[in-house]
């Protein structure tokens, strides 16, 4: 039995919008749970590694005003990618389904990165470059013979400032910026078909622009002496890796001819048909037909004979060998 016959299998009934939403309830619950774990870990005292008062790498001044404070990081890593992804969606495929999936993938990327970064911070306990300034050690303090100094020698009255001084590795700002803007970069690359074997420089610059913003945020952490360069490098690499992992949960590879659209909504037919990623031209066309079928039946439950007629025309074009098949607008 070929893929086309599987995709064309008669359904027991049309898939509804409510069924599609409920099928992703577990994804949202896991994402929310990860976010809750992230905020909970912030309250854990964490490990405080011993240090030397003669270590020049932790003798930098404490910056009261950061170049990228936490509220700005939320705007850069979450709000901006969320809104810009929706704008790109409106300017390209105009699909509510894609808007939903892009938001889910973005939040998942940030949540996973946050938990990994926070857990690593509290277990490693690396001193920040400005630790001695935070610690406010007594004048004339020296390391004990054949040993290092502990945090107990510090005279910092603000416990939160001192606790944060031992959370240098890895950089949360670098991780979050690359997790959010990295996801946006992959989203843009998929929409413009960056790897279509045609080599368009404007596509490359457009896709890489978000990563430049993430790099600037990461570099600012060394300028504020909040992180060592190793912290920023590892945090950025982690965020970028997680962003691609989250992106691939819901979108095809960037080399796919259908990289501009997310995977089809989950339903029983999808499970019987197996993976939807095409490996040949014929399977690509079959996948296009199936993607249109799902959207057509989902929209038809809200009414609209005219929309079903347009979907039928689109399926005919796909069967005749159309090279591009994009999902139609989701309408109410």
General description of the model:
It is a single chain. With 332 residues, the chain is an all-alpha fold. It has 2 domains: 1-24 and 274-332, no CATH class; 44-250, no CATH class. Helix content is 59%, strand content 0%.
Key words describing this protein structure:
332 residues, mainly alpha, 59% helix, 0% strand, disordered N terminus, disordered C terminus
Main sheet record: none
Helix content: 55-70%
**Rounded radius of gyration (Å):** 25 Å
| Oligomer status | single chain
Helix-strand category: mainly alpha
Shape: elongated
**How many domains, as an integer?**
2
Tell me the distance between the termini.
36 Å
User: Number of DSSP helices?
Assistant: 13
Q: How many E-type strands?
A: 0
Q: Stretches where pLDDT falls below 50 for ≥5 residues?
A: 1-12, 269-314, 320-332
Strand content: under 5%
Order of helices and strands: HHHHHHHHHHHHH
Mean pLDDT over the residues? 82
Detail the topology: elements first, then pairings.
Layout: H1 3-7, H2 17-23, H3 25-41, H4 70-91, H5 96-124, H6 131-135, H7 159-164, H8 172-191, H9 201-223, H10 229-250, H11 268-273, H12 281-300, H13 305-319
Helix pairs in contact: 3-5, 4-5, 4-8, 5-8, 5-10, 8-9, 8-10, 9-10, 12-13
């Amino acid at each position: 039995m070929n893929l086309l016959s599987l995709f064309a299998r008669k359904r027991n009934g049309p898939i509804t919008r409510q069924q599609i939403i409920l099928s992703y309830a577990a994804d949202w619950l896991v994402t929310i749970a990860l976010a809750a774990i992230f905020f909970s870990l912030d309250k854990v005292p964490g490990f405080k590694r011993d240090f030397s008062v003669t270590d020049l790498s932790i003798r930098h001044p404490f910056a009261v005003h950061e170049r990228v404070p936490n509220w700005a990081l939320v705007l850069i890593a979450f709000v901006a990618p969320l809104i810009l992804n929706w704008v790109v969606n409106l300017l390209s495929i105009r699909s509510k389904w894609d808007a939903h999936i892009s938001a889910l993938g973005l939040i998942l990327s940030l949540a996973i990165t946050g938990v990994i970064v926070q857990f690593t911070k509290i277990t490693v306990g690396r001193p920040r470059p400005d630790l001695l300034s935070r610690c406010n050690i007594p004048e004339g303090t020296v390391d004990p013979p054949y040993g290092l100094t502990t945090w107990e020698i510090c005279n910092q009255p603000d416990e939160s400032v001192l606790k944060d001084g031992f959370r240098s590795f890895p950089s949360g700002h670098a991780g979050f910026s690359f997790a959010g803007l990295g996801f946006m970069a992959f989203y843009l690359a998929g929409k413009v078909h960056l790897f279509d074997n045609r080599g368009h420089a404007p596509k490359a610059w457009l896709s890489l622009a978000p990563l430049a913003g993430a790099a600037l945020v990461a570099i600012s952490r060394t300028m504020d002496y909040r992180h060592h360069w190793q912290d920023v490098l590892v945090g950025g690499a982690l965020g970028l890796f997680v962003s691609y992992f989250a992106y691939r949960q819901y979108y095809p590879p960037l080399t796919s001819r259908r990289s501009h659209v997310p995977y089809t909504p989950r339903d029983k037919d999808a499970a019987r048909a197996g993976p939807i990623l095409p490996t040949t031209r014929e399977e690509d066309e079959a996948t296009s037909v199936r993607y249109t079928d799902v959207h057509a039946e989902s929209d038809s439950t809200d009414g609209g004979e005219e929309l079903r007629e347009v979907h039928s025309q689109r399926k005919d074009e796909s069967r005749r060998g159309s090279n591009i098949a994009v999902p139609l607008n989701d309408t109410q």
